[in-house]
From TrEMBL:
<protein>
    <submittedName>
        <fullName>Pentatricopeptide repeat-containing protein</fullName>
    </submittedName>
</protein>
<dbReference type="Pfam" id="PF13041">
    <property type="entry name" value="PPR_2"/>
</dbReference>
<dbReference type="InterPro" id="IPR046848">
    <property type="entry name" value="E_motif"/>
</dbReference>
<dbReference type="InterPro" id="IPR046960">
    <property type="entry name" value="PPR_At4g14850-like_plant"/>
</dbReference>
<feature type="repeat" description="PPR">
    <location>
        <begin position="244"/>
        <end position="278"/>
    </location>
</feature>
<feature type="repeat" description="PPR">
    <location>
        <begin position="345"/>
        <end position="379"/>
    </location>
</feature>
<dbReference type="GO" id="GO:0009451">
    <property type="term" value="P:RNA modification"/>
</dbReference>
<keyword id="KW-0677">Repeat</keyword>
<feature type="repeat" description="PPR">
    <location>
        <begin position="5"/>
        <end position="39"/>
    </location>
</feature>
<dbReference type="Pfam" id="PF20431">
    <property type="entry name" value="E_motif"/>
</dbReference>
<dbReference type="InterPro" id="IPR002885">
    <property type="entry name" value="PPR_rpt"/>
</dbReference>
<dbReference type="GO" id="GO:0003723">
    <property type="term" value="F:RNA binding"/>
</dbReference>
<feature type="repeat" description="PPR">
    <location>
        <begin position="107"/>
        <end position="141"/>
    </location>
</feature>
<dbReference type="InterPro" id="IPR011990">
    <property type="entry name" value="TPR-like_helical_dom_sf"/>
</dbReference>
<dbReference type="Pfam" id="PF01535">
    <property type="entry name" value="PPR"/>
</dbReference>
Length: 440
DNA sequence: TTAGGGTTAG
């Protein structure tokens, strides 16, 4: 095209965003700002939707939010829900709450966005409370709503509430979508009701790959490795199946939990037959499989050979296996890797001390304890809380008898200041009811 | 002619 107008710019930005080409969409938006065409609400919705997940897109999202405020687009519910979604996916649920609370008109999609924002950031209780409020406010739930609510029930293992939502699904949705089916299977599996999950699975005639994977994973996480493998093999021979990385993660998890070492290796190698290149998660499964079954050297070799840097969880599960098999040398190496990654995290110090203690290496145990003292690492002694009002003034401290409570109180003055400066509360510290949890 | 929300993973 020789000339681009507002609509053609918006169309290409929207197209790129929908295709998951977020970076390109943002880049195109910047080009547009330099052109003669000015973005409108539709353009902002498209470009904001392109900001997902990664840290740099949080900055992009904040910048776009500033544009929106300046241009007065913040009363458009499409724009608001795209911003809520963006903040939720960047792990900033509090920012999403602020937007939701400010909105004057709350339609179904806005509620859905906020419920999803809570659920995604593991605020299951808040997600359920908002769902109840939504019902009281006569905003009618859609199957998007119910999917998110089921997710929250699963993550809180609330079987009773999950069943109630299932009843609502039956009542409100004449035709169950694959989204709802997989969310229900997932909810029942996570609540330990694997029989209900299987019943639903068998009852569903139109199954897609996610439905299959959810069921396989349900078995894997319930420790029913053989059932998981059986189902996977049925899925494998099915015409038109779409075996992907997640499905392989599910089957590898099953092997892992059931101790099927040879099967696990076989499935890992099979990925290539389907044109899939193993990603970090599949390597993690295989490494854990080796380590859990005592093949610690093999696991270590694989960690060094694989084309990814081992992450915290990999080293951590490896350290656990070193503890199980009394492997001091490898355990020490894993622990020191973990100290580098999260020096404040007591778990790895304690684990290394345990490994030393089991081996009777008491001098080394003392050294670890000293190291902890030097770095000011404390073993967590549970949780306390501090209640705050809207202005973040403290009005009660949870366990006032605990010697650490006073420190929390003092720390809060500083924290309040920093939070206000930053304009939001950190995820770990924020509870929408006005209670801040602190680790003692 | 351009716009928002949902399922599965170590």
């Amino acid at each position: 095209m020789k000339r681009h107008d507002q609509v053609s710019w918006t169309s290409i930005i929207s197209g790129l965003s929908r295709m998951g080409q977020g970076k390109e969409a943002i880049w195109m938006f910047k080009e547009m700002l330099d052109s003669n065409s000015k973005p409108n609400c539709l353009t902002y919705v498209s470009v904001i939707s392109a900001c997902k997940g990664v840290e740099e897109t949080f900055d992009q999202g904040t910048m776009l939010h500033a544009h929106v405020l300046k241009l007065g687009f913040n009363n458009n519910s499409f724009v608001v829900s795209s911003l809520i979604n963006c903040y939720a996916k960047c792990g900033r649920p509090y920012q999403a709450v602020l937007l939701f609370d400010e909105a004057t008109v709350r339609d179904t999609i806005l509620f859905n966005s906020m419920i999803a924002a809570y659920s995604l950031n593991l605020y299951g209780e808040e997600a359920l409370k908002l769902f109840i409020r939504m019902r009281n406010e006569d905003a009618s739930p859609s199957d998007h709503t119910l999917t998110n609510v089921l997710n929250a029930c699963g993550s809180l293992t609330l079987l009773h509430q999950g069943r109630q939502v299932h009843s609502l699904v039956t009542k409100l949705c004449s035709e169950k979508s694959v989204f709802l089916t997989s969310a229900l299977i997932d909810m029942y599996s996570k609540c330990g009701s694997i029989g209900d999950a299987r019943f639903l699975f068998d009852e569903t005639l139109e199954k897609n790959d996610v439905v299959w994977t959810s069921m396989i994973l349900g078995y894997a996480q319930s420790g029913k490795g053989a059932d998981a493998l059986e189902l996977f093999e049925r899925f494998e021979i099915l015409d038109g199946n779409k075996l992907d990385h997640i499905c392989f993660t599910a089957v590898l998890t099953a092997c892992n939990h059931a101790g099927f070492v040879d099967k696990g290796i076989e499935y890992f190698n099979k990925m290539r037959d389907y044109g899939l290149v193993p990603q970090l998660d599949q390597f993690a499964c295989l490494i854990d499989l080796y380590a859990r079954n005592g093949h610690l050297r093999k696991a270590k070799e694989l960690m060094e050979e694989m084309p990814y840097e081992p992450n915290y969880v990999m080293w951590s599960s490896f350290l656990h296996s070193c503890n199980s098999y009394g492997e001091v040398e490898l355990g020490r190496e894993a622990a020191y890797q973990l100290f580098k990654m999260e020096p404040w995290n007591a778990a790895s110090y304690i684990m290394l001390a345990n490994i030393y203690a089991k081996a009777g290496l008491w001098n080394e145990v003392t050294e670890v304890r000293k190291l902890m003292q030097q770095k000011g690492v404390r073993k967590s002694a549970g949780w306390s809380w501090v209640e705050v009002d809207k202005e973040l003034h403290v009005f009660s401290v949870g366990d006032a008898t605990h010697p650490e409570s006073q420190k929390i109180y003092e720390g809060l003055e500083k924290l309040n200041f920093e939070m206000k400066e930053a304009g939001y509360i950190q995820k770990q510290l924020y509870e929408p009811e006005g209670i801040i949890y602190c680790q003692l």
